[in-house]
Amino acid sequence: MLEIFDGFIDAVSSEFHIPFKKENDGEYSAMVEFEGGRHQRVLISFGRDDQGDPMISYYSVICKLDEPSPDLFREALLLNTNLTYGAIALMDDNSLIMHQATFLKDLEPQRFIKSFLYVAAKADELEEQLTGEDIS
Fold first, then answer.
1. What pLDDT does residue 129 have?
2. What pLDDT score does 72 carry?
3. How many structural domains compose the chain?
4. Which of 35, 57, 64, 65 allows an S-S link to 101, with CB 3.0 to 4.6 Å?
5. Is residue 11 part of a domain?
6. Does pLDDT of 1 surpass 70?
């Protein structure tokens, strides 16, 4: 199944001229540049849902928290209610991320790019809103 995922990423990279980099753990990453010099790194990984169906997950770091912040967590949860796709989540290393997942069988290049760009743009927007910086 990983061969299908790798092949799909190669095809999307060629079709949309996006330089994806394969990381050591099998994830792919790409940097998205925005107007005004802002940028956002998006990671894409292959996995399976609870029933074993193949999934692709996209995520981008919004910010890394030095200390847990109940106020920030509350704000993130409130922001989740207004997201069109995906969700804001917290990773084990205290990184606040924008995350979205989709079934591999339903994926086509246009839908992949739409999700990829949405995660990048929303993570960048939230990063600026929550930190005022351009870290990721």
1. 86
2. 85
3. 1
4. 57
5. yes
6. no
